[in-house]
Design brief:
CATH class: Alpha Beta
Distance between the termini: 49 Å
Number of domains: 1
CATH superfamily: Alpha/Beta hydrolase fold, catalytic domain
Strand order of the largest sheet: 1-2
Mean pLDDT: 75
Radius of gyration: 15 Å
CATH topology: Rossmann fold
CATH architecture: 3-Layer(aba) Sandwich
Number of helices: 5
Helix content: 25-40%
Low-confidence stretches: 23-33
Structural class: mainly alpha
Order of helices and strands: HHHEHEH
Length: 148
């Protein structure tokens, strides 16, 4: 019987649901939002151990086994003009989630006219210290809260 790490699965689901529903997309400000496109995602430079990949845990199978579900779970495919403003903070040297995932999310949101800003944190890996970036997060939040 395969064991499921419910805590890890819940973190993945929280981020995906937040991104898909447009409730939050502070990628990098929190560690819940991950890859924007599961179907076309290339592995990071530091792959997860077999059977522990967050996407496989979410899908209860591989992307190859469940391509339709992978597409459905990919936030990049749910970009719409009424999406919540998105601030994407992503390390350019992220070994877990390739930086191009945030680039693709930014492009998808720009195509539909949604408010999005990508901040490339030069040389940062996946779990970089967000403290120096919090003022940028708050500024972004204040700007978009004033518009509502």
């Amino acid at each position: 019987m395969r064991r499921v790490n419910h805590k890890a699965t819940a973190k993945v689901l929280a981020g995906i649901l937040a991104a898909v529903l447009g409730l939050s997309a502070l990628t990098g400000c929190d560690d819940y939002v991950m890859a924007g496109d599961f179907y076309e995602r290339r592995p990071g430079k530091k792959p997860d151990p077999p059977g522990r990949e967050p996407v496989a845990m979410l899908l209860h199978g591989t992307v190859a086994d469940r391509p339709q579900l992978a597409r459905l779970a990919s936030p990049v495919l749910h970009a719409h003009h009424e999406a919540a403003p998105c601030l994407l903070l992503h390390g350019t040297d992220d070994l877990l989630v390739p930086f191009d995932q945030s680039v693709r999310m930014e492009q998808a949101l720009q195509r539909v006219g949604a408010a999005v800003q990508l901040v490339a944190v030069d040389g940062a890996d996946h779990g970089f210290d967000k403290t120096p970036w919090m003022s940028r997060c708050w500024s972004f939040l204040r700007l978009h809260m004033q518009r509502t």
